[in-house]
Design goal:
2 domains, six-stranded antiparallel β-sheet, mainly beta, single chain, Jelly Rolls, binds calcium ion
């Protein structure tokens, strides 16, 4: 009789074990601020790579997780798995800082799992890395990414990853803070453009920016003969949020404040931006350029918003976009075409629309 009891007990334990194991990630995302140290997070690497040293650090952004490479063979992560719902849109937010990260190999990977399975749908870094740093050394920058869960997805792993595409060298260090994941509620489309509202600032490379401050994630290109252009983060004139970007063009100027993001050529999109002008000669507008996977411009006429001259108060200008076959990226350019005068840009929105 005793043996039978033991057998029954064993049977239940063995039957329940997998359920307990699978239930381990049936939880909400927690401690993205690292206020509770690494509670809820676990570290990892694979094959024979060296795990980075992973600690929680006090920084200008508050608590942050810090990953440092101890040798030239380092790759690894700190991750958290949590439940999500299928066919939903989630927004992942984080701030990242890094120092000497070899080939910009740092970012946030998001991995999807179906229900009752520990087998990831894909680990392909090309498909699972919505957030990656663009410079090997940078101060804190805010990032945002949109993740759409598949029809069978039940959980996600959010992985702060040093050595995304290969190992990093000794001394490579990365920090992440303020990780958040929120379900996008309602029917409103998600802005896929990072910092389209010009609210996040960073140090400017070009001295034409007042106080060497420019909007994060955007790059300014100027034609060679455009020498007198001055650029500002303008908090007194804005269409939304706390500030816009202003360009003063005392002499004929050709420039583009641009930002590139991925798209899918089978989908349809809409772009809109707010512009204001004062005494513009020449013209200003936003133009859209489609690029292939390697970043090469695809042939065809560039779609543009309404082309502005003279003086106009703030107004929003939009256009519908059907990317050409082979389009994998889109470059958005707030553009000045041989323009003089003053122009403001704000509230750039790029979103997917129903086909
Ligand atoms: Ca703004």
């Amino acid at each position: 009789m005793k043996t039978l009891h033991k057998r029954i007990l064993c049977f239940f334990i063995l039957a329940l074990l997998p359920a307990l194991f699978l239930a381990a990630w049936e939880k909400d995302f927690t401690n993205g601020s690292f206020e509770q140290d690494l509670q809820g997070w676990k570290t990892g690497t694979f094959s024979s790579w060296t795990l980075p040293e992973i600690t929680v650090d006090s920084t200008a952004m508050g608590k942050a997780v810090k990953l440092s490479a101890l040798d030239d063979n380092t790759r690894g992560w700190v991750e958290q798995r949590f439940s999500v719902q299928p066919n939903e849109v989630y927004i992942v937010e984080a701030s990242l800082k890094c120092r000497d990260v070899t080939y910009n190999r740092m970012g946030i990977q998001v991995i999807e799992y179906p229900a009752n399975s520990d087998k990831a749908k894909t680990l392909d870094i090309k498909k699972t890395l919505p957030i990656q740093i663009a410079k090997n050394t940078q101060d804190w920058l805010p990032y945002q990414a949109v993740v759409k869960t598949g029809s069978t997805t039940a959980s996600l792993t959010l992985r702060v990853y040093l050595g995304t595409h290969g190992p990093v060298k000794k001394g490579a260090t990365a920090w992440a803070s303020g990780l958040k994941i929120t379900k996008h509620e309602g029917d409103g489309a998600v802005n896929l453009l990072p910092n389209g509202d010009f609210e996040a600032k960073t140090t400017a490379a070009d001295s034409c920016w007042k106080d060497k401050i420019q909007p994060a994630h955007w790059t300014l290109w100027k034609a060679k003969k455009t020498k007198k252009l001055r650029a500002f983060m303008d908090s007194s004139e804005k269409y939304s949020g706390l500030q816009s970007v202003r360009f003063e063009l005392p002499s004929e100027s050709r420039f583009a404040l641009h930002c590139t993001l991925p798209l899918e050529s089978s989908k349809k999109y809409r772009f809109s931006a707010a512009m204001k002008t004062k005494d513009i000669q020449g013209s200003v507008y936003v133009r859209i350029m489609y690029l292939d996977g390697k970043g090469k411009q695809l042939k065809g006429k560039l779609p543009t918003t309404h082309i502005l001259r003279d003086t106009h108060d703030w107004e929003e200008y939009g256009l519908n976009l059907t990317p050409p076959a082979g389009g994998e990226k889109v470059k958005i350019e707030c553009f000045g075409d041989n323009a003089r005068g003053t122009v403001w840009f704000d509230s750039c929105i790029f979103n997917e629309v129903a086909p």
